[in-house]
Amino acid sequence: MKRLRRLLPSSSSSSSSQNVVVAPFITSSFSSWSSSSSQHHHHYHHHHHRQTHSVVENANNFDERRRRRRRNERRDDDASYDDYWKKKKKKEVNNNNNKIVSSRGFAASSSSSSSSSSSSPAVKNNNNNNNNNKEINPYIALARLDKPIGIYLLAYPCLWSILLSSSTAAIPPATEEIAAMTALFSAGAVLLRGAGCTVNDIWDRKVDAKVERTKDRPIASGKITVPNAVAFLGAQLGLGSVVLYQLDFNTQILGLMSLPLVVAYPLMKRVTNLPQLFLGFTLNWGALMGWTAITGGVLEAPALALYGSGVCWTMVYDTIYAHQDIDDDKKIGVKSSARLFENNTKGILSTFGIGAISGLLASGYLADAHWAFYPFLLSTAGTHLFWQIYTVDLKNRKDCGDNFE
């Protein structure tokens, strides 16, 4: 037993020895674990930080790319928007340049094809109310049906004559007869005015093609050939003959006598300084026909006075209209009353205005019209002529066009 005890360490020494052996092992193990844990913790935080930084960086890059893409899209949108409006503006300018500009032909003015490109802005201003971006049918343009002022100027003398002769006749015609004559002469005004414009454009086609303002006219631009225009003229005159056939024989003869005036008028601006006077003879022929249509073919003095009044009135309004192209007429060599009266236009037109009013008063007196005819005439026709002559600015092309009535 003692021997065995000597071989075995004592409890205290054993405990101490274990402590000596185990402690370093534990210490080294803890140190190793601690070091390993510290390294692992440091690696984890470093890796986590890298991951967080990468995520933030990717998010920032994504936002930056998105902002860049939006800027590019906005830039493209702005470019497309600007390009759209530039194209639209260019298209509108082209449309305006290609519009069919109204003529100064039959029942419009004396120098139908005389204006050069320098007058086109004023003429466009004058005719914008009648034109739009839609292209009209060339035959409608040829007959000037889209510009009815010429029809009115041709119809007014006819209707005045019908009304005056009906109201002063010893045996007043029936209301149905007056209405029928009004309808017939209105239709005749449309057809005769269209025929006059067609003749005018046939005569002036070569000159019109060289002038900026008139180059788009149907015949000058080639939209209607000369043979087709002649055929169209024949159709207009044929329909006009149907209207004329409804009237009495004497009135038919008067109607046929007006055709040479219609055909010859477009040439007058080349041979006389007073083409407006010749236009007055042509446009107011209906004052004679309207009277004979009611009286059964009898032409009387009141009708002649009414005709003279209409000729003077035409001299007023068409001379004013011719003033808007006076400079171009000088360059091209087209004659007009505006050129003839240039230094004293308003004074001379005042004389024609007095002649127009005097002719109307004389027609009423010769027809034994009611006394109310005279104050009514002076307050309407007199006021209009005074306004027309004394308010127009003859140096302003647009104002001359606006005062043309």
Automatic annotation (TrEMBL):
Annotated transmembrane regions: 149-172, 178-203, 224-245, 347-366, 372-390
Biased composition (Low complexity): 94-133
Enzyme Commission number(s): 2.5.1.39
Catalytic activity field: an all-trans-polyprenyl diphosphate + 4-hydroxybenzoate = a 4-hydroxy-3-(all-trans-polyprenyl)benzoate + diphosphate; 4-hydroxybenzoate + (2E)-geranyl diphosphate = 3-geranyl-4-hydroxybenzoate + diphosphate
Listed name of the protein: 4-hydroxybenzoate polyprenyltransferase, mitochondrial
Pfam families referenced in this protein's UniProt entry, alphabetically: UbiA (PF01040)
Species the sequence originates in: Bathycoccus prasinos
Keywords: Isoprene biosynthesis, Membrane, Mitochondrion, Mitochondrion inner membrane, Transferase, Transmembrane, Transmembrane helix, Ubiquinone biosynthesis
Annotated metabolic or biological route of this protein: Cofactor biosynthesis; ubiquinone biosynthesis
Chief subcellular location: membrane
Co-factor requirement: Mg(2+)
Membrane protein topology class: Multi-pass membrane protein
Any single GO CC term annotated in Swiss-Prot or TrEMBL for this entry: mitochondrial inner membrane
Segments of skewed composition (Basic residues): 39-52
Protein family membership: Belongs to the UbiA prenyltransferase family.
Record's function text: Catalyzes the prenylation of para-hydroxybenzoate (PHB) with an all-trans polyprenyl group. Mediates the second step in the final reaction sequence of coenzyme Q (CoQ) biosynthesis, which is the condensation of the polyisoprenoid side chain with PHB, generating the first membrane-bound Q intermediate.
Compartments, as annotated in UniProt: Membrane; Mitochondrion inner membrane
Gene3D superfamilies tied to this protein: UbiA prenyltransferase
